[in-house]
């Protein structure tokens, strides 16, 4: 067959495919993105790759069931939903059918290994039971409060005081990321990297973690997943950078594990008393393998570092836009801490209901994790009638859910903490508990986030400590800044603010 005949045959086959697609195959869902033969929705996906959050939100809002299906060349068929009934079905009712799945665990596998946030089945269940026991321990809570007291009062507040006296702008997002990194390393590893102290040399471990997180996030955003897989196989570009970064992380954590075991052995020999309550020491005492311990603590460092710092950044941005909210927050904080000379403890944090409502409202509009995906083990039908095929990627979308009028009402785009407060006759305001399937910021069902309470303690502690001491105003009074979803939702360009000492 000559070249002309071969080309003519290919064109004929393609024309036949178009005819079959148009007249025989079922049409694409009416509320999904525009679809073309063979390539699916690759073109609109690529065109909207820089605004996927808002694009997905608009598609969901136009769908009667807040669900759409997208398929594109080089990627799995994906069901995207903001429907609370669907989400309850995925995360609870039919939980066994929706593991994270190999396509997802492959993306984060190099960084997280087989840690709790990147595992399924029996391995996940075993780690979940172990972590659940540790997170309910009072000693770990006490360690968190102690770390917050040391890091916030010992470093964060002095840094902000210095900035205030020098009358210069500072990036709160950068400060909160540094702060959260120190705190989570203290709790997970029992070490203090001193990342918030800019006078100390920066640790290679910190840079390696940033690089590994960035490349891992880019894997998930690739229009065609084969791109990063080929780069990894060849050891080139960003995949080589990831390999080097992960190597540095493993070396750093393995060294800490080795030294901690030596400390524990010394204690066992009675030569020196070494008491530690951090997660690493508990995992070692439990007899876990070095690899399992390494993967577990790396998972917790990643989760604890970026989520709370992202939420705090958006919290302060939101409060700066609403002086009335700031005034009510300050009243509550002062009332609770008046007898404690502005010091914050665990019990006083529990009393700050309006502060918690403001944090919930912040994460409704700007969830730290904007979307999460599972992969179907078997065919299924969601409560809204959407058919799921075996192997499909099923994504629930907290960012879009916070913007659904069907869930939150016509004022869904407004920052209104009062929507979280209920008032009983003759009683004060209490926090209204909302179904986790309408507000899956901390996941829900069997995989609900174990660190939820710890995250609220940390965020409330920082918010109270900062607001009680400083007036914060944005240096750039721009409209809503651009949100950049990597592994968590960061603010593009950071949050530049100027501070003044609060006079009360």
Furnish the topology, listing elements before pairings.
Blueprint: H1 3-23, H2 42-47, H3 52-62, E1 67-70, E2 78-81, H4 84-93, H5 102-112, H6 121-135, H7 138-166, E3 170-171, H8 172-188, H9 204-221, H10 226-234, H11 237-268, H12 279-285, H13 290-320, H14 323-337, H15 346-351, H16 353-365, E4 372-375, E5 380-381, E6 387-388, E7 393-396, H17 398-401, H18 405-408, E8 421-423, E9 429-431, H19 452-467, E10 470-474, E11 483-485, E12 489-491, E13 496-501
Parallel strand pairs: 2-7
Antiparallel strand pairs: 1-2, 3-13, 4-7, 5-6, 8-9, 10-13, 11-12
Helix pairs in contact: 5-9, 7-8, 7-19, 8-13, 9-11, 11-12, 11-13, 13-16, 13-19, 14-16
Organism: Iris pallida
Binding site for heme: 449
Family: Belongs to the cytochrome P450 family.
Describe the structure.
It is a single chain. With about 500 residues, this protein is of the alpha+beta class. Helix content is about 55%, strand content about 10%. It has 19 helices and 13 strands. It has helices at about 5-25, 40-45, 50-60, 85-95, 100-110, 120-135, 140-165, 170-190, 205-220, 225-235, 235-270, 280-285, 290-320, 325-335, 345-350, 355-365, 400, 405-410, 450-465; strands at about 65-70, 80, 170, 370-375, 380, 385-390, 395, 420-425, 430, 470-475, 485, 490, 495-500. A 4-stranded mixed sheet has the order 1-2-7-4, with helices on both faces. Strands 3-13-10 form a 3-stranded antiparallel sheet. A two-stranded antiparallel sheet has the order 5-6. A hairpin with a 7-residue loop joins strand 1 and strand 2. Helix 7 (about 140-165) packs antiparallel against helix 8, helix 13 (about 290-320) packs across helix 16 and helix 13 (about 290-320) crosses helix 19. The relative contact order is 0.15. The model is unreliable at about 20-25 (pLDDT under 50). Belongs to the cytochrome P450 family. One of its GO terms (cellular component) is membrane. Keywords: Heme, Iron, Membrane, Metal-binding, Monooxygenase, Oxidoreductase, Transmembrane, Transmembrane helix. Its EC number is 1.14.19.50. It is found in: Membrane.
């Amino acid at each position: 067959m000559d070249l002309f005949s071969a080309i003519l045959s290919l064109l004929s086959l393609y024309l036949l495919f178009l005819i079959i697609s148009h007249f025989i195959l079922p049409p694409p869902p009416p509320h999904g993105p525009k679809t073309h033969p063979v390539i699916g929705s690759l073109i609109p996906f690529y065109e909207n790759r820089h605004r996927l959050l808002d694009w997905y939100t608009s598609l969901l809002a136009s769908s009667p069931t807040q669900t759409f299906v997208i398929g594109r060349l080089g990627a799995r068929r994906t069901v995207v939903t903001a429907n609370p009934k669907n989400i309850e079905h995925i995360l609870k009712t039919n939980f066994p059918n929706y593991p994270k799945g190999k396509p997802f665990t492959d993306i984060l596998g190099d960084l997280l290994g087989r840690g709790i946030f990147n595992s399924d089945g029996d391995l996940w269940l075993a780690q979940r039971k172990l972590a659940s026991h540790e997170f309910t321990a009072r000693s770990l809570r006490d360690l968190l409060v102690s770390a917050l007291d040391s890091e916030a009062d010992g470093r964060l507040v002095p840094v902000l005081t210095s900035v205030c006296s020098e009358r210069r702008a500072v990036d709160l997002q950068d400060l909160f990321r540094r702060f959260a990194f120190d705190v989570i390393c203290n709790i997970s590893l029992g070490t203090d990297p001193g990342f918030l102290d800019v006078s100390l040399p920066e640790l290679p471990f910190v840079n390696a973690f940033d690089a590994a997180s960035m490349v891992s996030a880019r894997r998930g955003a690739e229009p065609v997943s084969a791109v990063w897989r080929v780069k990894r196989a060849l050891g080139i570009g960003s995949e080589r950078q990831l390999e080097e970064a992960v190597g540095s992380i493993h070396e750093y954590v393995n060294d800490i594990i080795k030294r901690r075991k030596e400390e524990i052995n010394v204690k066992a020999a009675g030569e020196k008393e070494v008491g530690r309550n951090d997660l690493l020491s508990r995992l070692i005492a439990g007899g876990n393998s070095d690899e399992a311990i390494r993967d577990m603590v790396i998972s917790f460092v990643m989760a604890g570092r970026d989520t709370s710092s992202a939420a705090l950044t958006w919290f302060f941005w939101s409060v700066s836009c609403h002086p009335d909210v700031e005034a009510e927050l300050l009243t509550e904080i002062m009332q609770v801490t008046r007898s404690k000379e502005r010091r914050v403890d665990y019990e006083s944090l529990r009393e700050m209901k309006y502060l918690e409502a403001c944090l919930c409202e912040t994460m409704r509009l700007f969830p730290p994790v904007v979307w999460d995906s599972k992969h179907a083990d078997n065919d299924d039908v969601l409560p809204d009638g959407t058919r799921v095929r075996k192997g499909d990627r099923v994504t629930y979308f907290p960012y879009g859910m916070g913007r659904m009028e069907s869930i939150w009402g016509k004022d869904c785009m407004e920052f209104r903490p009062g929507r979280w407060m209920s008032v009983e006759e003759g009683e004060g305001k209490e926090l209204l508990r909302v179904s986790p399937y309408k507000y899956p910021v901390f996941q829900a069902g069997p995989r609900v986030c174990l660190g939820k309470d710890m995250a609220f303690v940390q965020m409330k502690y920082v918010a109270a400590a900062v607001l009680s001491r400083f007036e914060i105003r944005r240096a750039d009074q721009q409209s809503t800044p651009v949100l950049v979803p990597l592994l968590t939702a960061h603010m593009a360009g950071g949050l530049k603010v100027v501070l003044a000492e609060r006079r009360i």
